[in-house]
Amino acid sequence: MNRIYSIGLIVLVLAVIALPACKKEKSFESGEAPTGDLAWEFKQDVHAFKGPLDTAFYQNNGSVNSLVMEGFSNDQTGSFHLEIIGANIIAGIYATPSVIFEYFSNGDLLYSNDPAAAGKFTVTITSIDSAHVLGIFSGEVIDSAGALVNIIDGKFSAAIRATDVAPPTNPSACLISNLASYDLLNGDKIGTITTTFNDQNQVTKTEVIDSSSQTGGVITNTFNLVYSATQIKVDATQFFTLDANGRISSYTGYFNPLDAASPELVIKYTYDGNGYLSKAEAALKAIPFVTIAESSYTWTAGNLTQVEVTGALLPSGTRVTYEYDVSKTAKEFVAFHPNPEILLFQNAINYGKTNANIPVKSTRQDLDSGGNPTGTPAVAEFKNYVFDANGYITSFESSGGESAYGENVKNVLSYKCQ
């Protein structure tokens, strides 16, 4: 989201893409969707795809609503995903970027619509009520070879399941599923990082949504995560490697994971004997043996108390210090490591032990070439924490100076529990 910062180096800013208006009427008579059976189907050239579709649900990502439909192919080798985004999902015509279509074959992405190709892929909800949704879809998609092809004769019929289920009592494991941010001064929407999980509570998709238009949300980045014993692949270019304990040992990807035009880096991570991240060494991918920046992490009584970024090739360094309320526990809370790749994928990766308590202040100080403080420090306060009945933080505010979670921002969290 556009309020996540890498200390003194980068501001991750999302492009604002205006949502096209959705035509909305009471019902539509054109086209036929599957009737009777709960199913999906579509064609691409001479290839026909179809399968059951008994999973449809509403998803609220803090600043945007969507209707998600998922299913498998009849032979169980393919998986179908269709998502419709809007403030109020009713019968009508929806088009990119307000829709997301993806089809996977044997775990690999075969077809997907381009979120930047406005209007090129459309979905028509022909009828919808509290229990059932029916519709058709078609349009331009990108295939696995990167070529533009057309999906035709798309149809879907799904039962809508309720999502307003009470949270589990004493959940055994909860992970952050959505992190939405709002302007603390005027309440305007800023953006959301939202996550999709599989049945094992494993992150399979991370989406970044820009909501700054205030009329809806635009998905600017989608990452479909693929796991192996030694690697977590987040897209075709970017990935984490894992050590024997399942922790990230390196990251290969862009300086700004949301921007393919930013420099490509390799970052190596080191942990101390207690399992806390102690060092991150960054090098350009083209010359991975030359460290250009080094981040050193200091932990005190189970909390990250200082991060210092230095490097022979950097004109200056940066130091961030943190203060905590040791009377309050941070239960599966957000990372305060000022690393874009960790902040973005924090609920999908193991980056070592996390803070034991909730932070109440961060101070970012620029350093000169000799490591001496220079300029005015940026001081941020983290306050007004709200906890749910199980002790998980559902919102907090960042006020004052720039921090890992923005400047004058209210952050709202939701969780996926096993």
List the helices and strands and how they pair.
Elements: E1 5-6, E2 10-11, E3 23-24, E4 39-44, E5 47-52, E6 55-60, E7 65-72, E8 78-85, E9 92-95, E10 99-105, E11 108-112, E12 121-128, E13 132-143, E14 148-161, E15 174-183, E16 189-197, E17 203-210, E18 218-224, E19 226-227, E20 231-233, E21 239-242, E22 248-254, E23 264-271, E24 277-284, E25 291-300, E26 303-310, E27 317-329, H1 340-345, E28 357-367, E29 373-387, E30 393-400, E31 409-417
Parallel strand pairs: 6-14
Antiparallel strand pairs: 1-2, 3-9, 4-5, 4-14, 6-7, 7-8, 8-10, 9-12, 10-11, 11-13, 12-13, 13-14, 15-16, 15-31, 16-17, 17-18, 19-20, 20-21, 21-22, 22-23, 23-24, 24-25, 25-26, 26-27, 27-28, 28-29, 29-30, 30-31
Describe the structure using short key phrases.
globular; Porin; 418 residues; 17-stranded antiparallel beta sheet; mainly beta; 31 strands; 1 helix; 2 domains; 7-stranded mixed β-barrel; 1% helix
CATH-scheme architecture of the largest domain? Beta Barrel
List the total number of helices.
1
Number of domains: 2
Shape: globular
Helical proportion, percent range: under 10%
Radius of gyration: 22 Å
Distance between the termini: 26 Å
Total number of β-strand segments? Answer: 31
Low-confidence stretches: 1-36, 163-171
**Classification by helices and strands:** mainly beta
Mean pLDDT metric: 81
Strand content is over 45%
CATH class of the largest domain: Mainly Beta
Biggest sheet architecture: 17 strands, antiparallel
CATH topology of the largest domain: Porin
